[in-house]
Amino acid sequence: MTPFLLAGIGGLMTELAGMLNIALEGLILIGAFFSVIFAASTGSLFLGILLGIMMTVFISWIFGAVTLYLKANVFITGLATNLLAGGLTTVLSFHLFGTKGVLMFQDLPSLPSLKIPALHGIPVLGDILLGHNILVYLGWLIVVLAWILIYRTPFGFRLRGTGSNPAAMTALGLKPQNYQMAGILISGFTCGLAGAVLTLNLGAYVPNISSGRGWIALVVIYLGGKTPFGILGAAFIFGLAESFSNYAQGFMNIPADFILAFPYIITVAAMVVMSIVQHRKVE
Amino acid sequence: MLVLRTILKGKHVKIKRSGIYVSAASLAITLAAAFIVMLVMIFIMSETPRDTIYFFFAGPFTNNYYLGNMLNSTIPLILTGLGISFAFRSSMFNLGGEGQVYAGGLAATAVCLAMPAAAGVVGISTAIIAAVVTGGVIAGMSGFFKMKWRTDELISSFLISNALIYIVDNFITGFLDDPENNLLTTKKIAEQFWFKKIFLPSNLDISIFFIVIIAVLAYFYLFRTHQGYEMRMCGLNPEFARYGGINVGRYMVLPMMLSGGFHGLAGAVSVLGTSHQCFKGFSGGMGWNGIAVALIARNNPVAVIPAALFFAYLEAGAKSAMINADITIEIASIVQSVVFFLITAQAIYNFVKYGRKGA
């Protein structure tokens, strides 16, 4: 669930600034690729995550600069970012490692996880709250930070103002573009982290490892009512659906292709149901 | 003197240039940027950059086989480009092209496999209709959700298409799998259903003539009929269109269905004309390329033809460089992303039009 959560929080920032960020998918992929590559080459998880995030923020800056300063269509530049991510990771993988397939890293340090033996005895709650790796807790921390940023700081007010009334922002002498750019860079940061969660957990890079998570995150934002804690809840549900489909593969005789299609079907269904509910409310 | 200086500085006198010139020049800037990025990448990645560049640019013209195959790959590109143009013209985003082409191809294959070989032309027509309907229904769903409940068609079309890709995969490797080999393909369709080849030894087939006619007809539909006018009006300004008494909801579903229909047709044409079977992932990239083609053509159905040719050239060049030199074909998708980044950039357009940035 952590990748959905992180990408969702990032997407929320641009969503509040009035932009639907379809580049999340590509940004996750960039983060996933570069964090594992840098972690393996430096031998340090921290440096790997840091450099991976920096790379993702850089790509999101390109996306933002073209969209905002060259005034391009945000959907098309979002697609461009996704295409660039797919192309760049494959070309670099081929150029550096001579393969377009899975990249395995044997001596990659594993992510430290939080273990408090005394509390592990608590049923259900202990399993849900404890024993995860540090990035999961970082994700939860980011939800809280995002909430504070959005609702308790001037920056947050201005970010939301950019989305709801850009003309008022201009009248106040503020530049809406600056806040949109900030939103995009934050989404670069969180997506970089989301990618790092994917590959560092696995200790390997699989081509197209983001596999639609950025798109599902867009729906998670809507399902979460465009609030950080709502996104936490929605990401939890999608995380459950994901683990269920992995689990179901084990004991039910469902072809693997249907398991792969399942997250998309669930997401479309959730999206349509939600828009029906909202439509009813408006009427 | 002062007047002259202001003219030279261009402060008050803005040079306004005509529409078509501006479009062409800003397109040229975008494509030039894409080629520069490509050259830089080749110099970084390739051990033998001179050979690589030669194969990239000249490769598609070195023999009839390459040339014919390049022309052949424009056929589905024109169709997907038309499909996207219809959606874009009415301000609808169809990001599900990949799945629609794939499902269309599967539908055409399934019909051909179910029919006796003697059915000939009837079989071909049925297969094409099946593919068009399949694509149309898939994309039409997103349009319908949008009309009914304001569900974002951009996200829904993408998600539906991605789910379908896996389901089609399952049909290809399961139900319709060819048991005689271990490849991930369906059985070959009967030879009576194949399109006639016109440029041997390449795969170029007779459908290219029909496709060009379809593009011209699409132009007339969009710019010379009442329905086309209403469709464009809904794209330009839906509020104004509604005020003018146009049924706006209808133009959320219809363009999406047309768009999906064109994608389905692209799938059918690739199967009947080129591959004669459905293999796993055969639609790879066709949907995205259709978006690129429509953008370069600025959603003009006739301009889609040269735009598709350009894209086919880019892909053929990358393929030739991959076979003969030492780069991978994905370099083409980086070049493509540069085109995507810059093609809608209003700042470039204004720069050409007024000679100054951000005017």
Q: How would you describe the overall organization of this protein?
A:
The complex is a heterodimer of chains A (283) and B (359). Chain A has helices spanning 2-16, 24-42, 45-68, 74-97, 125-129, 134-152, 154-164, 166-171, 176-202, 213-223, 228-251, 256-282, and strands at residues 103-104, 204-205. Chain A is mostly helical. Chain A has one domain (2-210). Chain A has a two-stranded antiparallel ribbon with strand order 1-2. In chain A, helix 1 (2-16) runs antiparallel to helix 9 (176-202) and helix 7 (154-164) crosses helix 9 (176-202). Chain A starts with a helix and ends with a helix. The mean pLDDT of chain A is 88. Chain B is globular and about 65 Å long. Chain B is built from 15 helices and no strands. In chain B, helix 4 crosses helix 13, helix 5 (97-114) crosses helix 11 and helix 8 (207-224) packs across helix 9. With 359 residues, chain B is mainly alpha-helical. Chain B has a domain at 74-317: ABC transporter involved in vitamin B12 uptake, BtuC, CATH 1.10.3470. Chain B starts with a helix and ends in a 5-residue tail after the last helix. Chain B has helices at 2-9, 19-45, 49-58, 64-89, 97-114, 120-149, 153-173, 207-224, 226-236, 238-243, 250-275, 286-296, 304-324, 331-343, 346-354. Chains A and B meet through helix 4, helix 10 and helix 12 of A and helix 6, helix 7, helix 12, helix 14 and helix 15 of B.
